[in-house]
Write the structure tokens for this entry.
Amino acid sequence: MNATAITLSVVLALAALAGGGAKLAGASPMRHDARRFGFSLAAYRLIGLSEVMAAAGLVLGLAWWPIGAAASLGLVCLMAGAVLAHLRAGDPPGKTAAPTIIAALAIAAAALTQAAA
């Protein structure tokens, strides 16, 4: 695996861990977002758990690329859902920037890890 794929996987893992950890912990802004998006706190925590699992998969993928590729694609799906939740809530387009960028980077990470295999 090349240095770009490794760096991208680590950065994405940190981003997913930060967001997922905050959701799992039930941080105040996350509880507010859950209500605003129409999710129960339990459902929002499941999303957080999925993000934490994606982070773990990205790190494990450094040792075995298929896990990293699957985790990257799972993260793309989670971020697509985040974009849809923001749009459905009537948020301005700028609110969709972070999940859109993370999804694009996750696609690149999946491609790079597979290409480096």
Notes: The mean pLDDT is 95. The two ends are 6 Å apart (CA to CA). The longest helix spans residues 65-88. Residues 25 and 87 are 25 Å apart (CA to CA).
